[in-house]
UniProtKB/TrEMBL annotation:
Transmembrane segments: 12-30, 50-68, 73-92, 98-125
Protein name: Integral membrane protein
Keywords: Membrane, Transmembrane, Transmembrane helix
Organism of derivation: Streptomyces ureilyticus
Highest rank taxon of the organism: Bacteria
Length: 140
């Protein structure tokens, strides 16, 4: 059974699905916390706590694993990368210093590298699980 034109559509849908999931996860984990905390010594931290970023990274593993285990590698890598980059740009673009562009670039490069590694590991793991056991034939 040939998939014909259906295959590129599925790849495009995987990109859109993982990008949308990434933007939604950014909003859920990081979008609501916009306030910097001032420490007693006068230094500012934030606006995000470590547990928020860790939660975002861990929940992003789900759509990346989903796409990579189905061999939608472009969706597994480019979807979350574009989704997080767009979400960071939207969230940080009101910064008057202009340094938000550096942060957005770092988000893009870090997400691209991390999703590529996670996709490769997922492909190796799922390929091993899906491969049928080797048949051992005795010569007759």
């Amino acid at each position: 059974m040939s998939q014909g034109p259906r295959k590129p559509v599925l790849h495009l849908l995987s990109i859109l699905a993982t990008a949308g999931a990434s933007m939604a996860m950014w909003a859920a984990w990081l979008g609501w916390d916009q306030r910097y905390d001032v420490q007693p010594d006068g230094t500012m931290t934030g606006p995000y706590e470590a547990w928020q970023v860790i939660g975002l990274v861990l929940t992003l593993l789900v759509p990346v694993y989903w796409a990579a285990s189905r061999r939608y590698f472009v969706g597994a890598v480019l979807g979350p990368t574009s989704g997080l980059t767009a979400a960071a740009f939207y969230d940080w673009s009101d910064d008057t210093s202009g340094l938000f562009a550096v942060g957005v670039g770092l988000i893009m490069m870090g997400t691209l590298a991390a999703t590529a590694v996670v996709s490769a590991v997922t492909a190796a793991i799922t390929d091993h699980r899906q491969r049928p056991p080797a048949a051992h034939y005795l010569p007759s």
